[in-house]
UniProtKB/TrEMBL annotation:
Record domain EAL: where: 23-277
Protein name: cyclic-guanylate-specific phosphodiesterase
Source species: Alishewanella aestuarii B11
Parent-protein start and end of this portion: 339 to 617 of 620
Recorded superkingdom: Bacteria
Length: 279
């Protein structure tokens, strides 16, 4: 807040100055993190009933020089506001495709699917498709195992352009998941026109699935909607056996969550795979 003083001059209060300097520091540190390769991807297994690993979602982590491993909530909003998300998002896509290409060349991991989160600003870049093509070529990855996770809110503006861009990428073999489904604006009309492959039921619905009949009704509706549109439906944030059981009863057979595994560094993910049946 800018406070007006008696003579009409305005000044920042101490709190605001502190915030501004924190943001400057974060901007500086994020640039350092990009140039010093401090970002890493963790991989959370995605499974299909009865427990076959189909692939993973890549989740960003920042190996901060003094603060340890930081999750996206510590920096992703700021990265989005400051535009640094474009550089970070590119780096995520490169790392994800490199990892996927490695898996594709190894027995036991060759058919894994990898899901990558794409931010609104990143997807809206006019040259996003060109960037993806360049990264696919450079990594030599088979794009049919790559999934991009978009959120509802980023699909609403410039709908026709969004559809066209998704179709271009789809033609390369890339598939799309709609993330956090049920939390944003969603109209059946537009959902039907998007070249989607998967709906991800938001963790918030899964959370209260067991105790709350309303949540159950919502989840049932989402699952039916997905089935009607011919989409795969995956529940995220599954933490308990009871949640898994309700999901299966409601007809949702794809899932991910702490009940199976947390996001893991790639070596631990590969270890997890060896102990589970890979699809
Ligand atoms: P999201 O895409 O909805 O990812 C799922 C989040 O839920 C992850 O948090 C994951 O660790 C967490 N999670 C998974 N299973 C469970 C569970 O059973 N219980 C609970 N309580 N949480 C679970 P994370 O890794 O902290 O990521 C947070 C958000 O940051 C993501 O939400 C996504 O929106 C964003 N994000 C992560 N990586 C990237 C990235 O590479 N690029 C962009 N643009 N955004 C990213
Ligand atoms: Ca996601
Ligand atoms: Ca999600
Ligand atoms: Ca989320």
């Amino acid at each position: 807040q800018v406070k007006a003083v008696g003579n009409g001059l305005a000044f920042f209060d101490a709190e605001m100055q502190l915030q501004a300097s924190r943001r400057l520091l974060l901007a500086h540190e994020l640039r350092e993190a990009i140039s010093n390769d401090q970002f890493e991807l963790y991989f959370q297994p995605q499974l299909v009933h009865p427990g076959v690993v189909t692939g993973a979602e890549a989740l960003l982590r920042w190996r901060h020089p003094t603060r340890g491993i930081l999750g996206p909530y510590e920096f992703i909003d700021f990265a989005e506001e400051s535009g640094l998300i474009l550089l970070i998002g590119e780096l995520v896509l490169r790392k994800a495709c490199q990892q996927l290409a490695l898996w594709q060349r190894q027995a036991g991991t060759s058919r894994l699917e990898l899901s990558v989160n794409i931010s609104a600003r990143q997807f809206q870049q006019p040259d996003f498709t060109a960037l993806v093509i360049e990264i696919l070529q450079q990594s030599g990855v088979d794009a049919t195992s790559l999934k991009l996770e978009l959120t509802e809110s980023m699909l609403v503006d410039n709908f026709e352009q969004v559809v066209a861009k998704m179709q271009q990428l789809r033609a390369l073999g890339i598939r799309f998941a709609l993330d956090d489904f049920g939390t944003g604006y969603s109209s059946l009309v537009y959902l039907k026109r998007l070249p989607l492959y998967q709906l991800k039921i938001d963790r918030g619905f899964v959370d209260e699935l067991v105790q709350d009949d309303n949540q159950q009704a919502i989840v049932r509706t989402i699952i039916m909607l997905g089935q009607t549109l011919g989409l795969e439906v995956l529940a995220e944030g599954v933490e308990t056996e009871a949640q898994l059981k309700s999901l299966l009863q409601l007809g949702c057979y794809h899932y991910q969550g702490y009940y199976f595994a947390r996001p893991l560094p790639h070596s631990e993910f590969e270890h997890f795979l060896r102990q589970h049946h890979a699809g």
